[in-house]
Each structure stands twice: as C-alpha cells, then as structure tokens.
Amino acid sequence: MIVARYKYLVLAVVLALVLGFVLLRQWQGPLLQGYRIEPAALVQTVVATGRVVTVSRTQVGSEITGVVLERRVREGDTVAAGAVLLVLRSDDLAAQVRQAEAELAQLATTTRPQAMVALASAESQLAQATRETERRRALANQRLLSSESLEQAVQSETLARSAAATARLTAASLAQGKSEETVLQERLQSLKAQLAKTVVRAEKAGTILTRNVEPGDLVQPGRILFTMALAGDTEVLVPLDEKNLALLSLQQPALAVADAYLAQPFPAVISFIAPAIDPQRGTVDVRLKVDPVPAFLRQDMTVSVNIETGRRQQALVIPNDALSGVQGNVAQVRVMQAGKVEQKQVTLGLRGLTQSEVLSGLHSGDVVIADAAVKIAAGSRVRIAEQPLPVAGGNGTSATHNELPVNFN
Questions:
Q1: Which of 11-15, 257-261, 380-384 is the least confident region?
Q2: 406, 393 in Cβ contact below 8 A?
Q3: How confident is the model over 357-368, as a mean pLDDT?
Q4: Whether residues 116 and 253 fall in one domain
Q5: H or E element, residue 78
Q6: What is the sign, positive or negative, of the torsion defined by CA atoms of 96, 98, 102, 104?
Q7: Are 315 and 37 in contact (CB under 8 A)?
Q8: Do 219 and 361 fall within a single domain?
Q9: Alpha-carbon span 59 to 211, nearest angstrom
Q10: Less packed terminus of the chain by CB within 10 Å, N or C?
Q11: 387 phi and psi, to 5 degrees?
C-alpha cells in the first residue's frame, strides 16, 4: 500500500514538472532562428558575366584580284606586324616587272648612248651646213654663184638645224633622271607595287580569329579573308543592370574567372563605363582591363567577374533575410528586447544579396530574428536559437562578400 502511494506521488511530481515545463515554454514563446549582430569586415561586389574582347579588330582582304597560291596562317595563330598571311599567283605581274626592268636597262645601255651619237651627228651636219651656206653666200656676193644655189644651201642649213634641235630634245629626254627614265621608273615601281600586293601581310601584330579563304580560291578586292584581333590591351566587356550604375566608377578592382578555367582567377580593373544605356536591355556596358593577361584567355571567352564597389574594414553587418519593408536605404528588422520581439527601423549602407551594412538603428550584440517573413506580433515572447552570420564565399579571406543582383536580359 505504501509502495503504491509512493509510485502515485512520483508520477504526480513528474506530471507536474512536465506541465510546468510546457507552461514555461508557452510563456517563453516559440523557438526561432536568430543572428547576433557584430562588427565584421565587409566587401560589396557586383557579380556579372561578360566576354573577352580586344581593344580593336581588323579585317584583312586583298587589294587585287587573284588566285590563292598559299595560305600560311589559321585560326588562333599569333602573327607579328608584316607577317605573310596569304600568297596569290603572280606569274603575269612578275613577267611585267621583268619587262619593265629590261626596258629601263635598255634605256641606260642602248637607247641613251644611241641618242647621244645621233645628237653629235646632227650637230656635225649642222656645222657643215652652216659653213656651206656662208661659203655660197660669199660667192653669191661676188656674183660668182647663182642665187638658186645659195637658197639650196640655206634650206639645207635650216633642215640640219631642225634635225639638231630634234636630236638635242631626244637626248635631253633620254638623259639620266629625265622624263623618259622617270616614266619607266614609275611604271616599274607601279608594277612592283602590284606584285607586292600578291603577298597579303598583317599590317599590325595580332591573333587570327577567322579565315575565309583556301588555296585555289579566286579573291577580289572587298572580300574579307581574315579577321584579326590586334595586339594590345585585353578587356572583359560586361553588360550591367543600369540599377548598379551609381555603384560603379573607373579603376574599381575586380576578380575575374573564365568558365573554362575556374581554378585560375585573374585581376581586372574598370577602364570604361559607357555613357549611354541600352534601352532594349536596360544595361550599361562596362569594360574591365586585364593586366597581366593569362595565357589561356581567348577572344569571346565567357568570363564571370566580381567588381568590388565598396569596402569596410569594420561594419555592423546584418543578413538580408532579417530585413523587411526595404525602401531605399531604410528597412525594418525585428529585435529581441528582454525576451520579447520589438520592431525597429534601420538605416543601411553597403548592400548585397546576402548581407548589408547597418548605419543606425542597431548596436553590436543585438539579436535579430533571422526570418523576416515569419509571422510574430511585436511584443510577443520568443526563444532564439543563435546561428552564425552567413559568409559569401569566394576569395578565402575572412571578409564578408556581398553580391548585388545583376540583370542580363
């Protein structure tokens, strides 16, 4: 009987303790997840995807019509300025060049000496005709010769003088550096220039991106044979949502990673922000200069970039899932005060997808409810299970990285 009473007493005590515990928990309120707000380093980044571009491209073609004899490059080849890209058949032009060279040599070795000989002969004949005219005039003055013979001598002198003048002009035109040689030289240079155009060269150093020609093809002026990315600065072109424009400025650092080489990130810096917005996509084009350029980087390669738009060495940080009613830089947050929920307004600074900086409204050590969407009335009692602040990964440092939303439409 005593044992039975003891068992009932123990059972009653246990039930009372359980009931008391349940009532205590009900009085304390539901268990919710929460964060303890503490200062931490904060880096704000804009995350975007772009592609590799060079400062400029060039299209290479032929200046003359011809048949392709050799193609010496292909896509991906890096060429120096003046490198041969293509050779056209040049038999006809080469023959014309040889002919022009032969004509120039003939001028120097044959035509010009012959003209000098002809000039000397014409001047000799003129001198003889002049002497003959003077002799006959003297005889005519003494009435020892008829006027008809004198007229014949004068006519012969006139013809000799004309022939000498013609020979003099011919010799002058054939003289070194004069008109005839200049004409032949210009023709030769023109033919050599045409012959040089049968070898298509790179005007500047760069990388071959595309080729549209093969040996045996007939090419004409205006046809694009190669597309080249000129050597120079390599950039990443990124279209950013215009909502991020206020956060951007020149020389902001960034960390980029090619989709094909995720384990090899490389630095970049903003070098250009477009002055206009694309009205169709609502984006602004931003160029990031890459220096040094990784060897694996290729034209039009897809690259993801994290642009650092703000940094705090010490900032009061709150996870974004604890914020509600965000309007501009003002938001609402629910804070634990003496075991009860209290609604507070906070002013935000740097903001990101995962965390934001609190400028006012909270203090270090305050505990906030993690889920802003949970339904709990102000003044309600709750219990908090603290969890660590989320850290956006990426660079292996202790700094918190926040990512801003980017629209790629």
A1: 11-15
A2: no
A3: 88
A4: no
A5: strand 78-79
A6: positive
A7: no
A8: no
A9: 10
A10: N
A11: -130, 155
What's the confidence (pLDDT) of residue 290?
92
17 lies in a domain?
no
Query: 178 with 59: CB under 8 angstroms?
Result: no
pLDDT for res 25: 47
What the block records as the tokens of 85 is 């890209």
Burial of residue 167, with CB atoms counted within 10 A of its CB: 0-12 exposed, 13-18 middle, 19 or more buried: buried
Is the confidence at residue 239, as pLDDT, over 90?
Answer: yes
The answer to whether residue 403 scores a pLDDT higher than 60 is no
User: Tokens 């003959």, residue?
Assistant: 132
Asked if 331 contacts 324 with a C-beta cutoff of 8 angstroms, the reply is: yes
Q: What percent of the chain has pLDDT over 90?
A: 31
Asked if residue 3 is part of any domain, the answer here is no
Nearest to 94 by CA among 218, 200, 196: 196
- The larger pLDDT score, comparing residue 351 to residue 27, is at 351
Cα separation, 127 vs 121, in Å, equals 10
Phi, psi of 356 (to 5 degrees): -140, 160
Q: For residues 116, 117, 123 and 128, what is the CA-based torsion angle, rounded to 10 degrees? A: 170
Question: Exposed, middle or buried: residue 20 (CB in 10 Å: 0-12, 13-18, 19+)?
Answer: exposed
Instruction: Examine residue 239 and say whether the peptide bond preceding it is cis (omega within 30 degrees of 0).
Output: no
Q: Residue 363: what residue type?
A: H
How many Å apart are CA 51 and CA 229, to the nearest integer?
14
Residue 409's pLDDT band (cuts 50, 70, 90):
very low
Buried b (16+ CB within 10 A) or exposed e, 169-182: ebbeebeeeeebbe
pLDDT tens, position by position, 339-357: 788 888 999 988 866 888 8
Domain enclosing residue 364, as ranges: 34-53+232-404
Task: Provide the pairing of β-strand 234-241 with 253-258.
Answer: unpaired
Q: How far is CA 178 from CA 110, 114, 127, 171, 282, in A?
A: 16, 16, 27, 10, 68
Domains in the chain: how many in total?
3
- Identity at 99, one-letter amino acid code: Q
The residue type of 13 is V
Task: Examine residue 177 and state whether it is found in any structural domain, yes or no.
Answer: yes
Side chain identity, residue 259 = D
